[in-house]
Amino acid sequence: MKSVQFGGWQMQTAERFGAKVSIGLPGRGMFLLEAAEPEGLDVLVRSVGAQVVARIGAGKALVVMGVASYMGLRGSRAVRFIGPVNVEQQRLAAVLGALNVSLNAPVSSVS
User: Fold this and answer.
1) Cα 46 to Cα 25: distance, rounded to the nearest angstrom
2) What is d(CA 72, CA 44) in angstroms, rounded to the nearest whole number?
3) Residue 52: HSE in the Cβ half-sphere, 13 Å Cα cutoff
4) How buried is residue 57: exposed, middle or buried, by Cβ count under 10 Å (0-12/13-18/19+)?
């Protein structure tokens, strides 16, 4: 039986509620990814089946990937930083245009 921790309260899910708890992860999302070694970014992106949306600098990119891949990369030594990003496509295009960076792929399906 799996216990669940909520703010210091530990509960036996099945005993307390007589229910099963399932936490589903959404399919894909956009993330800011910075590789620990800038030359390793492309290999890192390919290794998790991610897609580069825009390169921001040496070893930094906005990427679209599965949330499970994001969770797996959070503790990786190959990653200096990874975090979720939530922007509107028009605003992203405007910001990247101002930075003279182009989108590699449309991101309309990403929230």
Assistant:
1) 21
2) 12
3) 19
4) exposed
Residue 32 burial class via C-beta count within 10 angstroms: exposed 0-12, middle 13-18, buried 19 and up: middle
Q: Which of these, 4, 10, 7, 48, lies nearest to 23 by C-alpha position?
A: 4
Region 66-95: mean pLDDT is 87
Neighbours of 51 (CB within 10 A): 17
pTM attached to this predicted model = 0.62
Confidence of residue 57 (pLDDT cuts 50, 70, 90): confident
Structure tokens at 91: 């605003």
pLDDT, position 89: 73
